[in-house]
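Quiz preparation item.
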């Protein structure tokens, strides 16, 4: 589908998309990061704009130009991403968490650069990060403040994709979970993706290998169908 040929079925809707991968500082010059390029999140933002939505794109460490028509908030750490997503989610109809969020961060971030000495290096102790997607779903379930009508997550699974994905969808309490098939040169940094979209209370939707824009459109089709 060309961008101009899309339905305007998200007109008047506010959506939040997170993209990229968070970085957790070890010291002022080093971080723990991941391989997310942000391409899938940017495809989601671009296609949502084309379908008429008002889009806030929360971008973590993405080396891509801002998509036209979206409000872009650039962040680095999981704490930054959480603050930006939760703040934008308060007035959003839908949130799609496409970002790869670090599960752990160094427990202590040194203010000075770690220096190499003749001794063996100290281990880096990690602590858990908050789960932003679960937090959004918990807030909605508990009726704590305004909450998005549709909440979607992404998951990259390597084995037993359907069983792992189903368990994750239930655990998080979200409406949609896009389960990426990793491997075979798919997902990270490539223009193509292949996925199964798990739907709470519905049948899974298989999306064959194809451009990330196509997967984005399937996600927005499912989001639009769930918006009242
Ligand atoms: N996510 C999040 N906050 C985190 C970790 C993940 O909001 N601290 C979101 C991701 O943006 C994604 C979804 O949760 O949309 C699933 O991420 P994933 O890493 O697959 O799930 P985890 O619960 O972290 O499980 P695991 O990594 O152990 O498979
Ligand atoms: Ca994780």
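Solution:
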């Amino acid at each position: 589908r060309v961008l101009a040929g899309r339905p305007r079925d998200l007109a008047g809707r506010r959506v939040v998309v997170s993209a990229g991968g968070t970085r957790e500082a070890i010291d002022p010059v080093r971080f723990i990061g991941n391989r997310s390029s942000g391409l899938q999140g940017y495809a989601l933002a671009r296609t949502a704009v084309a379908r008429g939505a008002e889009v806030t794109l929360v971008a973590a460490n993405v080396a891509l130009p801002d998509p036209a028509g979206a409000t872009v908030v650039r962040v680095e750490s999981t704490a930054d991403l959480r603050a930006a997503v939760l703040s934008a989610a308060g007035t959003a109809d839908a949130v799609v968490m496409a970002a790869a969020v670090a599960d752990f961060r160094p427990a202590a971030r040194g203010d000075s650069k770690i220096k190499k000495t003749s001794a063996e290096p100290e281990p880096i102790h990690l602590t858990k990060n908050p789960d932003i997607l679960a937090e959004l779903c918990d807030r909605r379930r508990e009726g704590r403040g305004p909450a998005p009508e549709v909440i979607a997550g992404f998951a990259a699974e390597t084995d037993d994709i359907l069983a792992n994905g189903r368990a994750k969808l239930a655990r998080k309490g979200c409406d949609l979970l896009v389960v990426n098939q990793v491997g075979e040169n798919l997902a990270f940094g490539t223009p193509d993706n292949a996925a199964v979209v798990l739907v709470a209370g519905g049948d899974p939707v298989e999306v064959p290998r194809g451009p990330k824009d196509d997967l984005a459109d399937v996600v927005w089709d499912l989001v639009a169908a769930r918006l009242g």
